[in-house]
Each structure stands twice: as C-alpha cells, then as structure tokens.
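User: Please predict the structure of the protein below. I'd like the answer in structure-token form so I can feed it into my own downstream comparison script.

Assistant: Understood. Taking the following sequence of 412 residues as input:
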Amino acid sequence: MTGRRRALVLAYFFPPLGGAGVQRTLKFVEYLAPLGWDATVVSTRSRVYGARDPSLLAEIPPETRVVRTAALPLARYLGILFYRLRLRRLRAWVVWPDGGLGWTPFALAAALRLARRERPDVLVSTSAPYGAHLVALLVARLTGMPWVADFRDEWSTNPGLRDQPKALNALAGRAERAIAKLAARVVVAADYFDLEGLPASSPRRLEILNGVDEADLTAAGPGSAPNGRFVLAHVGTIYGDQDPTPVLEALARLAGRRAVDGDRLEVRLVGSIWDDRFAPPSGVRVESLGYVPHREAVAEMVRATVLLLWVSSASLAPSGKLFEYLASGRPLLCVTRSDNLAARLVREWDAGVVADPDDGRAIEQAILTLWERWEADGLPDQIEVRAQTLQRYSRRAAAERLAGVLDEACRD
C-alpha cells in the first residue's frame, strides 16, 4: 500500500470530553498522523458526561475529521434513579451495553454512512463504552472492512461489573466471542485481560499498554517542591471501590498520634468525586479541586511531594495515570496488590513505597517511610525513573505499534 490511509475510529470519549478514557485514543490519533494514517472519529456531542477539556482539541491533527453524533441518555438517568432506589440488578439491564449513554444507535448510523462515503481502509473501535464494539461488529459484517478492536478495560471479567446479573455476564461473553471471531486484530491495554474466545496466545491478540506523552510534561511546566509542606496528591476520579479513604484514615491516625506533623501535611484530590458517600476523615487537611484540564492535572503531579496511586485489591488495573506519575519524577505511595504492574514497577525502579490496600498498618508504615525520607532529603526528583518511563512507555511508541497492527489488519 502507498500513500495516506484512513481509519474510521469509534470512540465516545474524545475531545472536548476529558478524563482518563480520552487520552489513549487521542494520542493514538495524534501520533498515527505522522505515520501516514488519518482518522475519521465518530464521537458524540452529548453533554451528559460531565468531564470536559476543550484544551485537548488543539492536539487533534488537522487531517482528522470528527463526527459528533447525538445521544439519548434516557437509560442513564433511569440507571441513576434505580441506583438510588437500590434496584441495582434492574439498573444493570437498563444501562447495557454502553452505560446508558444512548450513543450506540447514533454511532451505528454515522459509522455506516461514513464507511460507504469515505471507504476507509480499516475500522477501529475502543471501549468503554462497550457499545462501540457492537457497532463495529455490525459495520464490519455489513461492509467487510477489516476491524481492530481496542479494549481499554475488561468486559465480561471486569471486576467493576461483577455484581451485574449472570445473564448479562453471559451476554458480554457471547459478544466477546463474536468480536474474537470477526475482528482482524484485538488490542488489549493489559496482558491480564481475559477475553472470551481469544486466548492470550492468539496471534490476533496484541498488548499495547497506556503510556505518557513527554509533550504533556513539557506543557505542564517545571515542578517546584512545596515550601515546607508535605503534599500528597491523588490525581483521578474517586468512585466505587476506587476510593482512597483507607489512606486518608491512615494519615489521620498518624497525625493524631503525632507520628507526622498534621500542620505540615496536605492532601490534594485532583479529579471528579462520583461517590456521594465519600467524606475525608477529620484531622487531615484535604483540598478537593474537582476535575481540572489535563495540563493542570499533570502540573499538579510535578508539583506534589508524593503521588498517591490507589487501586483496590479487587483490580489488577495499574491505572492509566501510572506512567504520567512515574514520568513526573515524584515518588509514589503505591497502594495496590503486590502483583499489580504498578507495584512491580515501583519496587523494581525504587520509585516509591508499596503497600497492600487491605493492610492499614502497612499503609501507615509506607506513609511514615516517605515522610522520614522527606524530612531527611526533601525527596528530590527521580531523574532515572522519569527517563526509564519515557523510554519504555511513550505514547508515540504505542502509536507506532498500533500503526503496525493496522497495516497487518489491512493485509489479511
């Protein structure tokens, strides 16, 4: 094949929407362009999703066409009502398969229209929402276009969906088997993802981890150590079991018995809080900034004393912000299970301290270790950790790998 090629990309989460789900697809589109791949992105103009970051629009290449469809999120509002009424099983049925966003039928109509008009070389879908894969499944069947499915999260084995009815889990499994059968390639964001009908050994399954864009660190500006204060920053959304309250409680206990100086301690929560039950314990100064643009979030990382990475013991997900955390050069308080990639990297690179999320005493000891190091030397930037992260986990390199996957899908 010669000349430029075009990919039709199905991605609900795309600028001006913000949040973690946007970054992977945006960076793929941005860095595929210099590799000869232009994109037409089917996204949404719905405002039901609250996190918005218009500054990210500047990163979309000029060759990229973005088609923003309508959505009818009635199911989402019903889902919220059923959640508050504790009708969780009924809620699960109402919001399947796209979280109640109501985007799937509009995305299907737009994708079919664009497939016929533009005749793109390859179709790419990314989840969540999982409805994107179902749209791509239909489009691929109707057009014969080669298809690459990108799983940012698990589906049938997602621990966040473990409480949904068994029939829905079975339905998700059937959908995964259909995806495995028809997709030319399936990309996963982590090696532990378990997909029905597609074993880890399959040559059509490839892993492309999330990463970090050095340009984002440059745009955020240089970091500066807080003046005489120990600032623990948690960057990311708080929801469900992704709730760092056990760390805040450990801090409160340490401050209460004066193991750390509460007057010099500050916690900064940078991101949305989607759990009405979340309430920081007394005895610790906590500042909640809410959702901020991505550039500001990265700036908060480089200005912190220590970065808190919390992943509940139910999940192996290392968190998409792991690589930005490491590239910031700041040490991590990594509260995850020991077999999580985040824990492994922090230990191997001596990039901070690891503690089990279910062990309150271990969390206290990890905090104390970092506090004592801070009092001793101020916790200087970890230059080698930053360099290793940028070398191994760059967004540009991830896009180069995806370009190879797209080439293979077109040749099949």
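That's the full token string. Residues 215-392 form a domain with the Rossmann fold fold (CATH 3.40.50.2000).
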